[in-house]
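Listing 4. Sequential folding, example run.
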Amino acid sequence: MKERLQIHKKADSSAYSSEQSQFRAHLLTNHSQFGSNKPIVQTKVENHKFQQYQFEATKLQIQAKHGTITPEGQERLTVLQTKMNESLQQGKEHSSQFGHNLSKMAIKRADSVSIGEIQPKLTIGQSGDRYEQEADRVATSVVNQINRSPLQNQDAGVKNEQGKSEEILAVNNSADKKQKFLQEYSLAKTLVNGIDDTLPQDKILEQLFKSFVNIQFQYTMVSKSPETLLKGSPEGDCQTLARAFKKVAEEYFGIEKITIESIAKPFLSEAGATPYQGKKPNCDDGKRWFFQNHYWASWNGKIYDVLFLSNKRTEADMAKQVQPLTSMLMPEQEYYETEKGKIVYPIVNKYSTVEVSIFEKLKNFVNNLGRFFSNSMSGIINKIRSLFAQSGNNTSGFDSLMRELEHDKNNAAIANK
């Protein structure tokens, strides 16, 4: 039968002091009787640890049976078997020395007993009473604390290794994807050459942006697909360049949310020459551009105008209409009127401009002369077209024509008199 120490509460502090002295004396007697035997909580801790050793060893034995155990697992199994043998041997020695199992004894230290737990009467406790339950609880708690840190470290190590494996796998997949991209698009090698892909995304985009000057691009004003450019045909227009920039940034460097923006209406621009080979500005003998539309890339609020390698929006003198107007005075009978008072008209594959004020004067003058020179109107119109074809900004030519027509008008009036 298991011994239990139970002491009923005293009413005053002097009684408590007396009983506490007796209690300490009793414990000293027990300690003398049991010699070097371990406290019961420690014994229960060892029992719990033995059970955990046995559980872990069983799993390893199953692995060994099926031939799936690792060298580390085999070494761990040997250590566990050794520890279990030592625990069993110690238990046998205790049983043979005292004739009973001390692991089932629960003795509370006197200095840990509170006033509320002191009772004057010593009794024999029953198996499974609250003292043995408390001993079981303490033993379990101790074992859990002993094993918690190694288990946590082991879990952290497993998670860390998993994280490293996933990171390595992601890097390998990224490298394979980049290699395939360069194999399919040979010109992309020139664009990404020397760019450190570990840099911040804005730095990568800026370097990619500037690298377009190295591909010997031909600006033909004719749109081509970005795939055609990247496969080795560096020609096209602003849309071709912007979409090629987006494709390399997203598919090679993995930078997302790049958008393509555009001006959809015709406009005049003072942007100047591009950094590429090909055509100079196509309007007014290389002084400015006339575009039917324009495209550029943007990311995180920043502009990447790849045609001009500029981070600024193109300043545009917008046309008032999308489709061209018509006039018999224009060389090709088509023209655009812009918001800033210019008339833009085509001459073969280029453009020229004239001030709206001059154009309106010519129209009014021709309309007025029509009543007097109906027979020679075609000749007058041809002279005007010839002047526009030479240069719309040749104001001296227009002034000369006006004087000539005015002179002819006066001569006609005199002849009629």
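-- end of first protein; second protein begins --
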Amino acid sequence: MTSSEKNISFDSSKKTGDGERLVIFMGGFDPRGARHYHQLMRAEAQKQPVASADRKYAIGAREKWSAGEHGQEKSLHSRWKVSQTDSGNSASADFVFFDWHDQVRLHWPSSRAEVFRQAVGTYVSIWNLRQWLQPVREQARFTLWALMYPLCYMLLVLLAGLGLGSLLVSAWDGLPPVGAAALMLAAVAVVGWGGLVLDGYLHISWLLRILNFAHVSSRETFPVLDARIETMAAEVAQALQQQQRWREVVVVGFSVGSVQALKLTQALRRKLAESPLSLQPSRRPLVNLVTLGNCIPLFGLFPGAGALRQTLREIAMDEAVYWADISSPSDSVCFGMCDVVGLSLREDGRKDETQAVRSFTEAGKRRAQWGLNPQAVCSPRFHKLFLPATYRWLRRNKMRMHFQYLMAGEVAGAYDYFELLTSAGPMRDYIERKLVR
């Protein structure tokens, strides 16, 4: 076992500087684990342009973290230090990577053909819910187009196969009906195979995997993942009770991880309320939720997502949580600058809620009927972080654009992922000062 893989736990005997922030990162629907994201963070931190020439970012070694007495799983999640130095001043955060890539792999077919086959059932379910798509079209039409893009692709491949088959049959005089049918099927198969090969460059199956998982999540429960979330919440609450190590806890949910981040935030708030810590106002930690490129309304769309919508209501009304949604309208895979809560709750069928969703127009403002959260809805303004030519390329690459929240820009701007994690002072103050417009 290398030094970067040793097991550690939240132990009160470990002493660190006061004022550190605990960040718990919930990644997206990705079969790659902590090693990939640690390497990505190290590489991007070195490339991140900053306004101050003296500021530098450093990413510490990756260490395995065990859930201690609260769980049976050992060496599952990972932890590393993220720090910045600027003119002699320093700030840092303990970064915990919540690992659920093993659960992702259970719903990650190795065959692209299987992904497309599952998508047929997903699109049938969406068609049955088409009456709820109008508010999505009004607030996030590019997202709706992106979700329909794979369907159009599948239909085009099928039509191309049928067209090629028809040309071959018409060109082959005297071909018997059985031969014509076989030739038609062969043409469709060949064109379909070509479509699967092309998908390797267009990443259409990646979009479909997210869509299929949203559909599956409305029909199935994930007891292993839910237990893992409860364990993490219990361990963090216990650590906060035993020591004054962190000034605040920030749950960061990226992409599909925004849904899991809601669940972890709810569990953490419940555990903290049950602990003696909640009776000491001077020691109450600040709990923050930051969603990057959120996919929450997609998961709240389906009728079976009642548990998620209830969790969303509780977070929306929890005054002890500061929730900031940072999602870009230029990222067509997420719901950027939208009424995230309203779009997610509309399926419950109350007419007044549907009308409220349609009337949501002021970016960054929350509607009273949904509660307090999210208290900040802001865009990372990716177009300010790149030169025009680079940004045009980025807009054409949906997958790359979606991961930009975790990556370096080309020029210094308001959004800096690494400064967001390590900024001095409360996370709320930083977001309100740098990102809210």
